[in-house]
Amino acid sequence: MFHDLRLAAGELFIQLDTLLITENLMIIIEVKNITGTLTFDEERHQMIRTLEGKEEAFLDPLLQVRRQKNLLQKWINAKGYPETPIETLVVISKLSTIIHTSNPSVIHSAYLPFKINELSNKYGGQVLGQNDLLRLGQELKQAHTPRKVDVLQKYKIKKENLRVGVHCLGCRALPMIRVYGKWQCSFCGVVSVDAHIESLRDYRLLLGNVITNRELRGFLQIDSERIARSIIQSLYPVGKTKGRTYRLDF
């Protein structure tokens, strides 16, 4: 299994959240960490999020994984591997999120292990032998091209000069305060359940794709250990308990 895989495919890049490879198929897993109610409009290629009575449109992740599948298939074929089935999944990590779609490729994260077994049973015969799997694993590691843009260095900004805290999604003021499980702006009064996600996206852009519990509390200006734990539980842990970091995948 590979996480955050980025492969060059001609002039384009294949960016994969997770790629699972077995002897009989490959599974592209795109994880979405979104709160609210999600409606998938495949005719218009949109995903519509409804939250607190407001609708917001996103690019359909089913279209995203379809493009990833096409590019990955070309990459695999160019390397001379046997024709291998590729399945795609869109996994919603927030179990409280309500999903409206008839597409079986969109699932909650709790069902992921069962879905993987279901897809594995769908393809019976072996396609990739042990040597193929070993060689493919090595080639994918060597071909991985991480995107590294040091934004702070590029714009000559010192880390200590960054304005931290959860910024308001309405007036962009800093910081929002935590009130009864929600973020509230002291300036314009806007209330949000997940305003911290935008601030963590800023952290990812400025400082990297992984964060520690201490760094999260410092960047979001959170004093409460309990609040920090509730936020960090929605992220993806890397490593053992001691020195554990968390991947900022949204």
Please state the CA-atom Rg, rounded to the nearest Å.
20 Å
Largest sheet: 5 strands, mixed
The overall pLDDT, averaged over residues, is: 88
Continuous helix count: 7
Total beta-strand segments: 15
Our estimate of the beta-strand percent is 25-35%
Q: What is the element string, with H for helices and E for strands?
A: EEEEEEHEEEHHHEEEHEHHEE
Helix/strand-derived category reads alpha+beta
| Overall outline | globular
Helix content: 25-40%
Give the spatial strand order of the biggest sheet: 1-2-3-7-9
Distance between the termini: 19 Å
- The unreliable regions are none
Explain this structure:
This protein has 250 residues and is an alpha+beta fold. It is built from 7 helices and 15 strands. The chain has a 5-stranded mixed sheet, with helices on both faces. The chain has a 4-stranded mixed sheet with strand order 6-5-4-8. It has a 3-stranded antiparallel sheet with strand order 10-11-12, with no helix packed on it. Strand 10 and strand 11 (182-184) form a beta hairpin. The mean pLDDT is 88.
Layout of helices and strands, plus pairs?
Blueprint: E1 2-9, E2 12-21, E3 26-32, E4 37-41, E5 46-51, E6 54-59, H1 61-78, E7 86-92, E8 98-100, E9 106-108, H2 112-122, H3 130-143, H4 151-154, E10 177-179, E11 182-184, E12 191-192, H5 195-207, E13 210-211, H6 213-220, H7 225-232, E14 236-238, E15 245-247
Parallel strand pairs: 3-7, 4-8, 7-9
Antiparallel strand pairs: 1-2, 2-3, 4-5, 5-6, 10-11, 11-12, 13-15, 14-15
